[in-house]
Amino acid sequence: MKTAQDHDHLSYSQINCFLTCSLRYKFQYVDKIPPAFTAVSLAFGVAIHEAAAAYYQTRLEGDELKPDQLWDVYRDCWQRAEKIKFFNGDSEKSLMDKAKNMLTVFHESRDPSITVLGVEEYFQLPLGGLPPFEGYIDLIEQAPDGTITLVDLKTAAKKLSDSNAQSSMQLTAYALGAETLGFDPAINMRLDVVTKTKSPEMLRYETTRTDEERNRFVKLVYGVWNAIEREAFFPREDWHCAQCPWTQNCREW
Ligand code: SF4
């Protein structure tokens, strides 16, 4: 029988999932029950993210993908997603059109002056008594003046605010990861967001993390792990349930 202690690592996604609904966390990461479907928002976000990552990877290699090549990456990734379930009137065609617009805006907003230092850069944070905390930094870039910035690439249904970047747990995890990669943990960071609005926008939100903010995140990870070890799993019924692929398992709980 699988138990919560079988984890070989922890990640931001796991912590976020646990805080959203601990029972969903159990189904996904402890019982490892395959999801009944892939929510369309997930398939779409992953495909856009993969196209953006491919763009920066080619920049790292001294080349640069064109918009139609970004589109090809999106389509390939979309086709690999299994059992996509559509919500809110979305269709494959409407999302293809949206993706084209978003990737065009993404490409138009590129900054040719930056140097790409890393894409999907792996880090591992050793935390005593816990499985190692692992993550991937979407993008590490360097400005012509030498300033290095860690970037989290995202899609969002609407414009965010500066407070979203300030409170982003993923960026706090990046700051901790930066330290393990030899950077200053107070390094500049940025949330780059392409909106899924009718007229997509590329928005950039800058932020940093203090010692206190990083320590608070580590404390949170310990707290979550403590709850996982005690198998404190229970449903948290809210708007997330509408697109939860483990609804049937939840009913049978
Ligand atoms: S249906 Fe809702 S409460 Fe149940 S596991 Fe999914 S997110 Fe949690």
From TrEMBL:
Top-rank lineage group of the source organism: Bacteria
InterPro entries: PDDEXK-like_dom_sf, PDDEXK_AddAB-type
Organism: Desulfomonile tiedjei (strain ATCC 49306 / DSM 6799 / DCB-1)
Domain PD-(D/E)XK endonuclease-like: start-end pairs: 9-251
Record's keyword terms, sorted: Exonuclease, Hydrolase, Nuclease, Plasmid
Keyword set includes Nuclease: yes
A GO molecular function held by the record: exonuclease activity
Record's protein name: RecB family exonuclease
Keyword Nuclease: yes
